């Protein structure tokens, strides 16, 4: 299975797929737009959006994490399958399941770390336990970090009231910049989505509707297509420059 051949199933699947692809396209489009505007302002008007670089970095981090989960969904992640391709079908399936279990365990570790990092910024308690959560940490007033802003990104006024109601405690000063809790929230949410997509891929391998977590022979097929296109172009060129007959 490759990214080009993946198709969503059912109305819910098509809706979720459209939502994900639209979100990725919007993130990429906003990155390009902010960067373009900043270049025009810098070279045309000798000024710039002081918060432009930070916003682009935030959008890029969201794009990368969304892209990881999307890659698992459409089987677009690159990998080396030279060894597993030498195995029989049953052996390849077992290797794919083992790799899937390892990926699930790794995603669970990432989810714990992501939640523990983000939780104080969202005024929630991080988990306890070294590897896997076994409870929640007892929070004191100085542990809550919802008041911490980004460096430069401004806070839209229409978001001030709900964000301050959520993130500020009694006695905290008003937010001056966009709070870090919002850009950082992609860490637990994105990791949870990655975990879901890996679990979905493993389930499809168990059912036999999927062979691997990685794309197979994509590079080989691309090289063959390029070579075929080159040969066709060469043949056309030689035909158009062939000497006229009878001379």
UniProtKB/TrEMBL annotation:
Where is the protein situated, by its record's location annotation? Cell inner membrane
Membrane-spanning residues: 24-43, 49-72, 93-111, 181-203
Q: Which GO terms describe its biological process?
A: C4-dicarboxylate transport
Q: Which InterPro entries match?
A: DctQ, TRAP_DctQ
Sorted alphabetically, the keyword list is: Cell inner membrane, Cell membrane, Membrane, Transmembrane, Transmembrane helix, Transport
Keyword Cell membrane listed? The answer is yes
Keyword Membrane on this protein?
Answer: yes
Q: How does it sit in the membrane?
A: Multi-pass membrane protein
| Signal peptide limits | none
**GO MF annotation: an example:** transmembrane transporter activity
Q: Which GO terms describe its cellular component?
A: plasma membrane
Q: Where is this region: Disordered?
A: 227-247
Tell me where in this chain the Tripartite ATP-independent periplasmic transporters DctQ component domain is found.
31-126
PANTHER family per the UniProt record, alphabetical: 2,3-DIKETO-L-GULONATE TRAP TRANSPORTER SMALL PERMEASE PROTEIN YIAM
Q: Which family does it belong to?
A: Belongs to the TRAP transporter small permease family.
| Subunit structure comment from the entry | The complex comprises the extracytoplasmic solute receptor protein and the two transmembrane proteins.
Its annotated function is as follows: Part of the tripartite ATP-independent periplasmic (TRAP) transport system.
Q: What is this protein called?
A: TRAP transporter small permease protein
Source species, please? Jannaschia aquimarina
